[in-house]
Amino acid sequence: MHKDIATPVRTRAIMEKYGFSFKKSLGQNFLIDTNILNKIVDFAEIKELTGTIEIGPGIGALTEQLARKSEKVVAFEIDQRLLPILEDTLSPYPNVKIIHQDVLKADVGKMIEQEFSEMEDVMVVANLPYYVTTPIVMKLLEERLPIRGIVVMLQKEVADRIAAKPGTKDYGSLSIAVQYYTEAETVMIVPKTVFIPQPNVDSAVIRLTRRQKPAVEVKDENFFFQVTRASFAQRRKTLLNNLTSGLPEGKQRKEDILEALRLSEIDPGRRGETLSLEEFGRLSNELYRFFHETR
Ligand code: SAM
Predict the structure, then answer these.
(1) pTM of structure
(2) What is the CATH classification number for the domain harbouring 108?
(3) Which of 86, 127, 193, 200 to mutate to test the pocket of ligand 1 (most atoms within 8 A of CB)?
(4) Environment class of residue 22 by beta-carbon count within 10 Å: exposed (0-12), middle (13-18) or buried (19+)?
(5) Which of 64, 151, 188, 217 could form a Cys-Cys staple with 44, CB 3.0–4.6 A?
(6) What confidence category does residue 295 fall into, taking pLDDT thresholds of 50, 70 and 90?
């Protein structure tokens, strides 16, 4: 087996060889601990015929561990300076393909079709660039890609919000958006010391397992997310107040909103953060009848 990339000595040697300097603006914090990397790979439960997508391979620390377990790894890297480095560090792994592209602009669905047609399932595994974690996670979910799940390192604070349960301070529209599509759990808290350079915030690894179908059945997804966002607009306000100020023409439609709350058996004095996903589903379906269906 080849020597691991993810050690402090090897990482520094690679950087020196190529005169590479970190770009903070691209969220470049590289992992230098193989134990952590192995745990991340284990959480992803990669099987022989799992196609693996990585976002931001850096100098290949995680890519290498994935390539040892997975039949095929495709990684999106935005920073051109890393391409010659990856070609060198990953030369022992012909099953890795690097795509030089901003993942937010990539047609990931098409790539899966082209690259993973022979695979049994597909996983996304990454140590995400922290300046764009939420847009990346939401892109992967909203595009309804045929993936089994996502195991990613991100800021602990974002992990807390994603996996939060109703009634907690972290529970909000991001928790609902992610849990609508997946079962979300924080599987590991990670200290700053396993990166160079060290990030300013604590990190965590989350595992998102895609649901066969969304957690609740809603009449209109966009409207459902509009209702959840409005409900959390001002956390200290009641549901009724947030909905009247956050929904289109909400003030004139106060009576309709009250009626929708009554029909969905939700007390208008409650706060958004106490509602379960199922309750938000019920509420948005009742509201939808008043806002979008002719009676
Ligand atoms: N995977 C490596 C590791 O664990 O050591 C590097 C992780 S580092 C936190 C994030 C990586 O994502 C960097 O290599 C950075 O250049 C890359 N990156 C940043 N923004 C990106 C984007 N929009 N699309 C693809 N890659 C991106």
Answers:
(1) 0.95
(2) 3.40.50.150
(3) 127
(4) middle
(5) 151
(6) low
